């Protein structure tokens, strides 16, 4: 089988370093809590397990393999991949590990029907879920369900570049209906319009026009949804991940109902911001 390893930019490598730093902190916290029966790692867009660095040309471990190397270990790992060939390559890499379940298919369906039911708060289970979509293809129902369960912490990439290319045009009247439906599914409803556009009085006509807002306004509105609608106690200000042209590809969010976990991630986010890796919004 030919390799299906994708080339990735520096922003992907930084993102995975950020979440990797949290893995051992998370497992140490849960490992000490005797009442917790299991703590699970979920990777909803797992890929084949490794990437090819665009910068160095070398293979870079992806989040699934980084999670598997974490000490203390997670109780169980769920890796979901839509592409059947990539899912098989990942199976080949993890070999016969009994603590790993690899599911091939749409994570929007598999998370709700097969994975999240195994992470119930009342069953003394906890989970860390990485939601790393390639495009606007993560449904809000997944995010809201995870938040309301109170047992699942999430890392989430909000795909800003895809939104700008296909939905958040300067003239919203020209956006195709199928793209609007995609955005509605990601947002949960059509209220994204209220943060993406503001009415502005025209100097030359009696009609108001809609003015497209900066990316950060959309990110702030999504953060509010994570807090108010999904019910997460802690939602950190997201980190904008940018390409070499300084265009924001996505915002990396962290949301949790755990005070200690949020405090740890706040320090990690702060360190990466202070390092000068992220420039502006």
**In CATH's first tier, which class applies?**
Alpha Beta
Which runs of at least 5 residues are low in confidence (pLDDT < 50)?
A: none
**Number of helix segments?**
10
The proportion of residues forming helix, as a percent range, comes to: 25-40%
What is the SS-derived class?
A: alpha/beta
CATH architecture: 3-Layer(aba) Sandwich
CATH topology: Rossmann fold
Largest sheet: 8 strands, mixed
Residue fraction in strands: 15-25%
Within CATH, the superfamily carries the name: Vaccinia Virus protein VP39
List keywords for this structure.
281 residues, alpha/beta, Rossmann fold, 10 helices
Quick recap of the structure?
It contains 10 helices and 13 strands.
Explain how this protein is built.
This protein is α/β, with parallel strands linked by helices and 281 residues long. The chain has a single domain (7-160, 215-274), classed as 3-Layer(aba) Sandwich (Rossmann fold), CATH 3.40.50.150. 40% of the residues lie in helices and 23% in strands. The chain is built from ten helices and 13 strands. It has helices at 10-31, 63-68, 84-94, 107-115, 140-149, 160-166, 177-187, 192-196, 215-228, 259-274; strands at 7-8, 38-43, 50-53, 59-61, 76-81, 100-104, 125-131, 152-158, 197-201, 208-212, 234-235, 239-242, 248-256. Strands 2, 5, 6, 7, 8, 11, 12 and 13 form an eight-stranded mixed sheet that branches. It has a three-stranded mixed sheet with strand order 1-3-4. A hairpin with a 5-residue loop joins strand 12 and strand 13 (248-256). Helix 1 runs antiparallel to helix 10. The longest helix is centred in the first third of the chain and has 22 residues, at 10-31. The protein is globular and about 65 Å long. The relative contact order is 0.13.
